[in-house]
Design a protein that fits this description.
alpha/beta; D-Maltodextrin-Binding Protein, domain 2; 10-stranded mixed β-sheet; 8 helices; 10 strands
Length: about 270
């Protein structure tokens, strides 16, 4: 997903959590008039996708968090730019999910961190690929996504010409180029990479792996428009129940399911 996504610490949430002897607060019920909300999202499998089971692991988690507060969530999948602008213009209660961006703070309030992402290098198993710092990539051709930043250190190495960055529009294209030897490795979020490999190119799955050293560790957030009256309460509700999910182990179960393939397409797309 070629888009970039301030964690807010709410005094209300903190006081409510601290008021219980076992740290976990009594589930908070919404005082909103509505019992259902619409949330916009972009396609970003396996985290978000209209075609996946539960509409992806992030959508599944968001729905269940709000369900515990008595609020039903309906997702609408749109191009990322439209999801962002339509939500700010009042069509949706929130938009999922986004990395932190200084510019977006002017328009949106960020939830607590919903996703933790790990970006790594994918490479062919029969090629020797080892790296400890970006100088180790000198002279290589590294694949990436269009208009995407993999962090300031990576961007600095590109600007200094340590390696050549060759960018295309999709992860699937990068896997094809990697298999054909047109690039030496490419950068991608680990879950997105393996989801694409297993569903789009299962014939390549035994020939490609990833390097364990992360390029970038990053968080993503649910965004609530700061011009909407209900956003403050929805944000409080979401953050409270998200924290409860993390404390009692339910949060981790969704991502264990992701590792086990619970959010894969039922039939691989072999195009």
């Amino acid at each position: 997903m070629f888009n970039a996504r301030v964690t807010l610490s709410l005094c209300f949430t903190w006081l409510l959590l601290c008021s219980t002897s076992n740290v976990l607060a009594v589930p908070m019920k919404s005082t909103l008039d509505t019992k259902s909300i619409a949330i916009s999202a972009g396609e970003w499998p396996p985290f978000l996708s209209e075609s996946l089971p539960y509409q992806g692991v992030a959508a599944h988690l968001i729905k269940d968090i709000f369900k515990e507060a008595g609020i039903q969530v309906h997702f609408t999948f749109l191009p990322w730019g439209r999801a962002y602008h339509d939500t700010y213009n009042g069509k949706y209660a929130a938009t999922a999910v986004w990395m932190h961006s200084k510019e977006r703070v002017n328009n949106y309030n960020y939830s607590d961190a919903l996703l933790s992402e790990k970006f790594v290098f994918f490479y062919k198993k029969d090629n020797h690929f080892e790296w400890h710092n970006f100088n180790d990539l000198r002279g290589l051709i590294i694949g990436g996504g269009l208009s995407y930043s993999y962090g300031p250190k990576f961007d600095k190495a590109v600007a200094e010409g340590i390696f050549d960055l060759s960018q295309v529009s999709s992860t699937e294209q990068n896997f094809r180029r990697l298999s054909a030897g047109r690039i030496d490795a490419f950068a991608e979020e680990i879950n997105i990479g393996y989801h694409t490999l297993n569903n789009q190119h299962p014939e390549l799955a035994d020939t490609i792996t990833h390097h364990p050293k992360p390029i970038l560790l990053n968080n993503s957030f649910l965004l609530f428009p700061n011009n909407a009256e209900q956003s403050s309460e929805l944000l409080e509700i979401f953050n409270l129940h998200l924290q409860q999910f993390k404390q009692d182990g339910r949060y981790q179960a969704y991502f264990k399911g992701l590792e086990q393939g619970d959010y894969r397409l039922s039939k691989p797309n072999l195009k």
